[in-house]
Design a protein that fits this description.
There is one protein chain. The protein has 11 helices and 5 strands; from the N terminus they run E-H-H-H-H-H-H-E-H-E-H-H-E-H-E-H. It is an alpha/beta fold. The chain folds into 2 domains: about 120 residues, Rossmann fold (3-Layer(aba) Sandwich), CATH 3.40.50.1000; about 60 residues. The chain has a 5-stranded parallel β-sheet, sandwiched between helices. Strand 2, helix 7 and strand 3 form a beta-alpha-beta unit. The longest helix has 11 residues. The radius of gyration is 17 Å and the shape is globular.
Length: about 190
């Protein structure tokens, strides 16, 4: 029986603007932005506990104002495929592979969809703002298996973070750490997906 592939999105399929474009928007370094941001607002936004408006109002711990619309436009325009990924997803889709997004991300996943149309290849099934669960919480992985009604060994999980891959392994899910499309192709072949 064919494997189901669970994809992390940011830093695995799509360029993440958090590290370069966001600090550039504020004219600062990543470290300075990270230090100034609200300590929990982003995570709460990812879990669906804050609206976009509330998140933007509390982006900075000191509550400073900024061009919020301009910020969201910058984030949206920064979303782009990582090299070779769109072609790989198309190949997997043509081979009949079932794929789902399994991502820690807020409602901005809709901006990614508007821009890149990931739904051509996968379902946005397990986004943290929908499920209320974030990787690497074991509950996030057990939720996926429960919803898909499949044994863990039927799934292959791809993520760029070691902690998320290790948590998947602890739940019995085969995981592949993303480190570029070339090594991933080889790993997918080894896993019998390609």
């Amino acid at each position: 029986m064919r494997s189901i592939v669970l994809w992390d999105v940011m830093g695995t399929l799509v360029h993440d603007p958090f590290f370069v474009e966001m600090p550039e928007f504020f004219g600062t370094t990543f470290d300075a932005m990270f230090e100034a941001k609200h300590p929990s607002a982003w995570m709460e936004f990812e879990l669906g506990q804050r609206s976009e408006e509330d998140f933007l109002e509390s982006f900075f711990a000191d509550g400073r104002d900024f061009d919020r619309r301009g910020f969201v436009r910058t984030v949206r325009s920064s979303y782009r495929w990582l090299p070779g990924i769109e072609e790989l997803l198309a190949e997997l889709g043509e081979a009949g592979c079932t794929m789902h997004a399994f991502s820690n991300y807020p409602v901005w996943y809709r901006l990614i969809e508007e821009r890149l149309k990931l739904s051509r290849f996968l379902d946005w099934t397990f986004v943290s703002c929908i499920t209320g669960l974030r990787k690497p919480d074991p509950a996030a992985y057990t939720h996926v298996l429960s919803k898909l009604r499949v044994p863990a060994e039927r799934c292959v999980f791809v993520d760029d973070r070691n902690s998320n891959c290790e948590a998947a392994r602890q739940c019995g899910i085969r995981s592949l750490r993303f480190d570029g499309v070339g090594p991933l192709r080889a790993s997918l072949r080894d896993a019998g997906v390609l």
